């Protein structure tokens, strides 16, 4: 290139004023000082052409997209875990086709090598016997799983999904920093990162030649389907549950790929196969995409303390009744010390050197290596040999620049000698920098790229871009990534236009997918979600009724207030507290149930529920008794009605919706029966009937329908027996009956199921009752009938 | 020496467990040159809906059983006839302790008897400076590996009291050692912790002890339940030595092995996973009669 300083006096100047690649460090944007890489040219020109302020607006649009989509990850701090918004770094990393081809060629070789290594470690054991790998590294690794020794995974392979963390060296070449073989995460986040980044850099930015991600997901899904051993066998994602840091991604991918999202307790090992408990009974599962560390899979043969595993899973796996990706035990490949031996093993097994080197690593168990590490400790990270953390995710006891810090050893050499075989030294890598948007300017930040690879029938298939980690500071040692940093999209720009590609089927003709089976645990959570939301609503109405009367009379001595207070106290509510814990707890329970069925729940519904819960929490401590609290309750009531509308108007009538609706109807009938027993009792003080009508949200209807003052007869008629009043008990029972008739096994050998019969009994009792029959005793019996019904439902479907 | 062994374990669950599954390690394993299995039968009542026999990684005979219906009680009955062949070794050919590390590094093996499995941390035995310090204090200069094993075993036997009320099946060895009390499981895990602390690979054996001693000899401690003892690796030539710290003796004709592993978690006689709540109660009866 002959042109000197081509960026001088162009509109790029203000944008790049603070962009300062460091000497001796590769940069993604500049291939040499003043020379922008061709793949970036039209992108940065596009940036420079945007009017003042537009970039910030577009970044905000991307952030909003992620928030609205509910993308989060969980972060663990010393004493708490919290959900964090996805940390998007808006400017993508742009790589050329040539760079990408080199990377995937190298990683294809590496994936093949890893498969051969893991197959040997659990099979013939030649690598150890021939001295290629020290036996101690495996025998002492918690990830080398003895119950998998001698197992031939169904389908013939251990590895199906891999991720590689790579970085660019100062000389421009790529180096592997770590292998992820246990349960690689991030592919789903890559999709959402791509969606958000496309919003930030919509037209006029170049897209036509950027590789799309959807094709990779289709290949991966097809590969999983191909692993099935029976047509009716399901492919499912196995997650540790909502408490895990990347649960959002598990739910998201399950929805995106149309797979069941299961937890260990959903599964049962039976007769050599693995089944999922659904509301329609046990159904076979043929392939599990595992998203948890293998040790937790089976308390019988692996970690005996695991509470999230499935007893018998390993036995099913050994017998070929289940295929799992990746096979349990694959996690041992992440052991850091393995990096020290892979270059030589590659020569041995493949007859060729590694096409992409990995970070230079020395295992201190060897005398020569130990001496080398000691002599070069000043430019190494030295840490646990058996650790599976990526170089920058761990706190190395000894690192360049940070010096040596260890609680037990004052002297680094003494420490290395004493712990020898437990330590590795790794060269301190210098990462390349890439543009990040900070305060209206582009700045240079270190980055690593995560590359996902899926095994398909035609070979390893790589997700073309999507995921890079961007450091928080300008420091280009790998340590700068320790604080987590942000995530950016990666665009691989082809030499020619790429075809549009989505997971959606081709246009022209469609096919309805059959409704999937609902796991019992999901049904249980939906049922209880319905109950808790309705329970909250009933509490809100009670509290509002009390505070309205408090404001009206100004005295707690009113007999109606006494009765309301006693009613609330019986529900565990401290009436002196305007927003009592019972209320926020019910909401939190509802949110917890919803969190466990994120894959079956609309994003808007989830956001509405979270908004409701945070509003309620915000009111505790600020609302004052009387008018103020009554107003607060009205606000909550509007929000909860909004949530219910969203769910019941918009939710597809899957079977899960029926469980949600049964929960709601059951709780509503129960709360009303309890309220009627207290507020329509013959000895209830005057004014209580009006409270009952208010709790039943039927004030206007009562006026129109009876045109007289409330009486026990009219109130019980309207709130208990009127099957046209959507608040009445009879109405709830009718709905429950309709839903129950649609559940699997509603008729058993030509007769209604026990549950259906129990509903029928309640329905008949109400149909033949006269209003004044419904004294507190009869209402109590009705509640017992409802509890009975809940029991039948639980034993038939929810266990 | 031939023995008839009988064992029965009764479980009673307060809340019938839903879809129970269990993994049993109760059938004595054959060991070449040490013990021969003449006959053995494990009766499971109620009969499980599925039952498989398998050999685990360590070569132990395991029985996996599952029930489709809730289980309110469970009775396991073992009857076995075993011939015990070898006496404890009388000659010490093990290397000096300081040479053990080099011999260990030379072992290129991942099989169940490879000493590499038996150093460092295992699921139930974490490295512990207290036991390692205790072990170091028992060493004499130039001691052989076997000397060290016997010395540490004898010291532990003096130091710890047999006390069935002091610990339970989940007590970590560090706590048992701190209170210097426990049963055979605790003696064994504490001694394993001691040995590993000074670089001797050590594992766990479960098994039976003859109920009535030969005439004129005292009854051994631990004969009324399943017993446990230590296995120590004393170099490539000598290999594995079994030592009973509860009775301060090398394992000989009075002991019959059921299972071997790194610690209790590898040999636990019954690993059960019961869905459902509630505690369960157990009763155990053992006898081992010389024929």
Textual characterization of the structure:
The complex is a heterodimer of chains A (799) and B (291). With 799 residues, chain A is of the alpha+beta class. In chain A, the strands form eight sheets. In chain A, strands 6, 7, 19, 20, 21, 22 and 23 form a seven-stranded antiparallel β-sheet that branches. In chain A, strands 8, 9, 10, 11, 12 and 13 form a six-stranded mixed β-sheet that branches. A three-stranded antiparallel β-sheet of chain A has the order 14-18-15. In chain A, helix 14 runs antiparallel to helix 16 and helix 16 runs antiparallel to helix 17 (603-619). The longest helix of chain A has 34 residues, at 520-553. Chain B has 291 residues and is α+β, with helices and mostly antiparallel strands. Chain B contains seven helices and 14 strands. In chain B, the strands form three sheets. In chain B, strands 1, 2, 3, 4, 5, 13 and 14 form a seven-stranded antiparallel β-sheet that branches. Chain B has a five-stranded antiparallel β-sheet with strand order 11-10-9-8-12. The longest helix of chain B has 15 residues, at 145-159. Chain B is globular and about 60 Å long. Chain A binds chain B through residues 121, 125, 128-131, 135-136, 138-140, 146-147, 149, 265, 268-272, 299-301, 303-304, 311-312, 315, 365, 799, and chain B through 18-19, 21-23, 50, 52, 54, 56-58, 64, 66, 68, 105, 107-111, 114, 116-117, 119-121, 123, 265, 268, 271, 273, 275.
At a glance:
The complex is a heterodimer of chains A (799) and B (291). Chain A has 799 residues and is of the alpha+beta class. Helices cover 43% and strands 15% of the residues of chain A.
